[in-house]
Amino acid sequence: MSFPLDRARRLRANPGLRRLVRETSLEPADFVLPLFIRPGKGRKRPIESMPGHFQYSIDEMLKALPAVVAAGIPAVILFGIPEKKDAKASGAFAGNGIVQQAARAIKDRFPGLIVIADLCFCEYTDHGHCGIVKNGAVVNDATLALAAKTALSQARSGADIIAPSGMMDGQVSAIRRALDCSGLEMTPILAYSAKYASAFYGPFRDAAESPPKFGDRSTYQMDPANVREALRETALDAEEGADMVMVKPALPYLDVIAKVRERFDMPVAAYSVSGEFSMIKAAAAKGWIDEKKTALETLTGIKRAGADFIITYYALEAARWLH
Ligand code: PBG
């Protein structure tokens, strides 16, 4: 069929028709809200590069959560800023660590809210790398034992989902085995399978106080130029027992999301990272773009590419806009 028989504009003629044939929908249940938790009481410290986001003490975080639940957001992902950092990342697996305490407090007060524990060490090590460092290099296998220990501690504190983001080889199987040996075989793993060494993490590293003190993360996070490697990484995580896989960042990696969606029949998450959020906020603050439309268009694009759900700093605002 061709013009004039075929007129694509016929189905765009009014809002009702457009709604009827819309291929992608966004809803509050698509979003996961990241939260940054620090020790103390009564603290709600604004994160300058991420307007509307804060480093919360647990009591202040609890005050913020009713709005999150009311907006229909099903899950939060927790990042901890510990009291002290050291070479062993002790704060990551401590029974009274900051994420452990936060998870307990949330599950106590909001049992229906899903708590995802990000499992990484850069916030907890004094050198800011995502694992054990020896002779200036991040050592893979020594880090796995730490990951297993941290996963157990997080799950025992009530975390519903463990999300390893360190990009160590074998981290998913190390965690799966540890959980299964401890009667936590029903705790799912959301694997950061294709996590790129991205410049878009800049604002997060301020928020989580986690920039590396030397070098960068390119010996463990992926080269932004690669997509076949992302499929290999995802296949490994799936074989190792991941329940869900993730692509991160989202916007510059829509092709990766689409390919992972096509290849794997498991839930695919996308992490729309701090830099993606801050770019929209900054341009909107200057009056250069319409914030609501740009943010919703971006989230729609990430879903259209194939993400089942999106970790986004716009979770709360977007959920409200959609209501
Ligand atoms: C920890 C981690 C990072 C992010 C999530 N988990 C930063 C990093 O790898 O340096 C970034 C998230 C964001 O930018 O929003 N490894």
Q: What does this 3D model show about the protein?
A:
The chain is an alpha/beta fold. The chain has one domain: Aldolase class I (TIM Barrel, Alpha-Beta Barrel). The chain is 39% helix and 17% strand. Strand 2 and strand 3 form a beta hairpin. Helix 9 runs parallel beside helix 11. It is globular and about 70 Å long. Bound molecules: ligand PBG. The site of ligand PBG has 12 residues, from helix 7.
CATH superfamily: Aldolase class I
The CATH class is Alpha Beta
Report the order of strands and helices.
HEEEHEHHEEEHEHEHHEHEHHEH
How much of the polypeptide forms β-strand, as a percent range? 15-25%
- The CATH topology comes to TIM Barrel
How is the main sheet built?
10 strands, mixed
Estimate the mean pLDDT confidence.
97
Count of alpha/pi helices: 12
Q: Give the structural class.
A: alpha/beta
Total number of domains: 1
The gyration radius over C-alpha positions equals: 20 Å
Bound ligands: ligand PBG
Q: Helix amount, in percent?
A: 25-40%
> What overall form do the CA principal axes indicate?
globular
CATH architecture: Alpha-Beta Barrel
Straight-line distance between termini: 39 Å
Q: Tally of extended strands?
A: 12
